[in-house]
Amino acid sequence: MDRDNILLTPGPLTTTLRTKLAMLKDWGSWDADFNALTADLRRRLLDVIHAADSHVVVPLQGSGTFSVEAAVATVVPRDAHLLVLDNGAYCQRMGKLATLMGRRTTVHSRAEDQPISPAELEGLLRADPSISHVGLIHCETGTGVVNPLAEIAEVCERLGRGLIVDAMSSFGALPIDARTIRFDALVAASGKCLEGVPGMGFVFIRRDLVDACAGNSHSLAMDLQDQHAYMQRTGQWRFTPPTHVVAALAEAMRQFAEEGGQPARLARYQDNCRTLVDGLGALGLRTFLAPELVSPIIVTFHAPADARYDFRAFYAAVKAQGYLLYPGKLTQVETFRVGCIGAIGRLEMQQAVDAVGRTLAAMGLPAGRA
Ligand SMILES: *Cc1c(COP(=O)(O)O)cnc(C)c1O
Predict the structure, then answer these.
(1) What's the pLDDT at 370?
(2) Where N6-(pyridoxal phosphate)lysine occurs along the chain (predicted)?
(3) Which terminus of the chain, N or C, has less C-beta within 10 A?
(4) Measured from the CA of 191, which atom of ligand 1 is nearest?
């Protein structure tokens, strides 16, 4: 088969040939052409969530987690108190990275199959005035559940608390409007719904906050205020930029605009998701989340309840047909995940469903009846 494997994973994901070809050029990091590329990319990123008036966007080298860590380090003062309501693996990661950098952190674990409750958050914030900031994962990629960003932001604004949003797996696909949703920082990355390649993140920080963040970060490399100040002064990244990743993201964003921006991307992912859920459903595979909570980003499925099922063998057999699935991230239940995002459409998703069907049949799991 001369086609690349189709990545049904939440980043890295399948990219277009145009995006891949954009990496076949070397850029000088001091050169005016590259500075212009970075500036144009930052403008386009601000436009995705209508944040040009309210926020700056600061790119950062590294995977998405580096940017989450940098956002917390930069925006949450050292004597502040961060609350994370935890409904999945990425919530736990935010709690851990904040704890490791010495921020006072409170993590409350909640059910993984339910969105975070704004009413519960309000109660917790009222009960503890020392909580200065809330950390929220918009789409919790561990399960695919979407947390109510607008409602949580409204609670934080009303009670005068800061909000850090990890919108890594939702940015570009789910609607986010900085004109109506108030947040201090919002984090995303190149290799998710914008369909670039992995290697850089970016953090939106409130314009009226960014200068006051000077001195918050315990880490030089993670200091987004410093990165921003340097970029404003010189047009350059502080340290070696991931030039090919930036070029690929700029090209991916041109295609994002051509496709019709966020609404068009969401529509395609919703179509992918329906094809997937209907197709695997017909094979007898059930979603972990209730149908109304399934999001068009990533879907968690219960593994077939059959002693002969083994994820590694299942994965290898589906891969041999050209599709890469994603393991589950739940400790209590045996699951696997399938991403709906990336440069794929209904045809690729239907082919993946067919590959799963053939695999289950070959493993002797009759039509996959779970
Ligand atoms: C992908 C992702 C991240 C970042 O993960 P990396 O492996 O560091 O790229 C963070 N949060 C969420 C919700 C994600 O989906």
Answers:
(1) 45
(2) 192
(3) N
(4) 9
